[in-house]
Write a sequence for this structure.
């Protein structure tokens, strides 16, 4: 169940609830503001804990107190904000997530929170409210629908209390924007966490159709003969071995008088067994998430449809499964991509770049100002950058820089990897225009130079999310499993 978030004008100390959340910066000995007021009402228990060094305000650290009836709230939770110099929206999301998880643990039904950060470090109230909302909704996420017994006690209500009536409208705007964004990230997580016997190409096509219908977007699906007619030969080759046939999904948001047109292309491998270049068992694990790029594009479009910026945003999703059968495409095959380029298959496990090749050429023909593709493309990117940094590369430095800057703003960081002639030459084929893989050297960049062949002159950036789309250990507001990266970064980039 989702937490219901609301805003209330009033005095923190006077509100009844199961848990009252306040905060403290590291190094503060005499709490002020809302925390100070609660401390005074409790007869100085918070400052006593600080004096006795039981609580130092370290980021995400907690002090939980029973109020013993001194105020209407049953319990008070003080969360540490860390050092004031390092404080920003990222820290607000983290402490908000920390608080909601603690609330669940103590089975608090109704939680009241101070608006972390308002007025500090030049942060406007709406940004703080958005960050509190995102932290709570993202941190509260779990994928438990297949558990027969779900023992989690959800938090029903989170109420942000603010004394200053003049700020309430801004805070409400922040809550509503944060709710739209976090809900879309959670939908992206759900789609990627769903098992591959549920999320098939057919399922994603129906999902996109229904979502578009509900949000007033246009949705077009190509399947069967239409894919042949449209020369989506690489997508057809990769998808051929599967009992679940491939499809190509296009979703358009087209406001009047748009200032620019952005194409988002998402890798949609509902399963990647590797094909005939079969993955070893341990590498096949979690390859249900090989459609996380496609799921992220749908997540972004969900936000865009609700927040309605003056920018055309179109999603292009090549969707299929990479499987093994007598009809599998083979190592040594030569495919002719949609743009006419011939591709020698060096490894059937380098399938993502093949389906993206056809999708990128559709986008390139569409006259977009920018193309951004999002793909769980290479294990090499995960090896190089780990699970915090998305690899970004492309043919246009200002575009790369602008997307990375948006990522920095929302805490979805990106690292620029190189594309150059020497790496392109690694993919030279003896018999065709290009081959789809080579040695393991610079493998993420090899993926990039391959994709570059299909975007023409359009400014383009490629985001390799192989490392960042999934975590094996939870973080503050990111669960174990699928993260929904880079939905928030792309929303931030498009909304500006
Ligand atoms: N889907 C994988 C990449 C991947 C690996 C994503 C681990 C998430 C976690 C991709 O299709 C793949 O198999 N890439 C190969 C390419 C190689 C054959 C050139 C890889 O990275 O090993
Ligand atoms: Mn693969
Ligand atoms: Zn793959």
């Amino acid at each position: 169940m989702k937490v219901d978030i609301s805003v209330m004008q009033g005095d923190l100390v006077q509100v009844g609830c199961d848990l009252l959340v306040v905060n403290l910066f590291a190094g503060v000995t005499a709490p002020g503001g809302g925390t100070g007021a609660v401390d005074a009402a409790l007869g100085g228990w918070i400052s006593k804990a600080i004096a006795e060094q039981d609580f130092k305000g370290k980021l995400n650290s907690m002090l939980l107190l029973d109020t013993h009836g001194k105020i209407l709230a049953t319990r008070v939770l003080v969360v540490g904000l860390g050092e004031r110099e390092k404080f920003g929206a990222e820290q607000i999301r983290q402490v908000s997530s920390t608080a909601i998880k603690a609330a669940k643990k103590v089975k608090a039904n109704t939680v009241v929170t101070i608006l972390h950060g308002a007025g500090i470090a030049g942060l406007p109230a709406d940004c703080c409210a958005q960050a509190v909302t995102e932290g709570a909704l993202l941190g509260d996420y779990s994928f438990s629908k297949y558990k027969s017994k779900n023992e989690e006690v959800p938090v029903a209500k989170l109420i942000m209390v603010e004394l200053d009536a003049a700020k309430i409208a801004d805070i409400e705007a922040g809550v509503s924007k944060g709710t739209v964004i976090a809900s879309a990230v959670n939908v992206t997580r759900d789609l990627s966490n769903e098992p591959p016997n549920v999320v098939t190409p057919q399922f994603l096509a129906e999902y996109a159709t229904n979502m578009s219908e509900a949000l007033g977007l246009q949705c077009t699906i190509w399947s069967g003969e239409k894919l042949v007619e449209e020369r989506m030969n690489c997508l057809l080759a990769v998808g051929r071995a599967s009992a679940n046939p491939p499809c190509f999904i296009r979703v358009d948001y087209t406001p009047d008088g748009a200032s620019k047109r952005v194409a988002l292309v998402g890798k949609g491998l509902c399963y990647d067994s590797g094909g005939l270049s079969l993955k070893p068992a341990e590498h096949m694990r979690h390859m249900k998430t090989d459609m996380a790029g496609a799921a992220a594009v749908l997540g972004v479009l969900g936000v865009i449809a609700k927040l309605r910026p003056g920018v055309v945003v179109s999603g292009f999703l090549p969707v299929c499964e990479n499987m093994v059968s007598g009809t599998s495409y083979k190592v040594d095959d030569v495919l002719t991509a949609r743009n006419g380029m011939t591709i020698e298959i060096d490894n059937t496990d380098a399938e993502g770049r093949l389906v993206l090749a056809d999708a990128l050429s559709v986008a390139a023909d569409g006259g977009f100002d920018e193309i951004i593709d999002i793909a769980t493309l290479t294990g090499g990117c995960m090896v190089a950058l780990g699970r915090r940094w998305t690899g970004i590369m492309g043919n246009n430095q200002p575009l790369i820089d602008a997307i990375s800057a948006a990522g920095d703003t929302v805490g979805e960081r990106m690292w620029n990897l190189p594309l150059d002639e020497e790496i392109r030459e690694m993919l030279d084929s003896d018999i065709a225009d290009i081959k789809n893989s080579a040695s393991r050297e610079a493998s993420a960049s090899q993926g990039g130079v391959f994709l570059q062949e299909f975007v023409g002159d359009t400014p383009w950036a490629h985001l390799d999310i192989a490392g960042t789309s999934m975590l094996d250990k939870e973080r503050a507001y990111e669960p174990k499993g699928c993260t929904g990266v880079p939905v928030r970064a792309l929303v931030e980039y498009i909304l500006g």
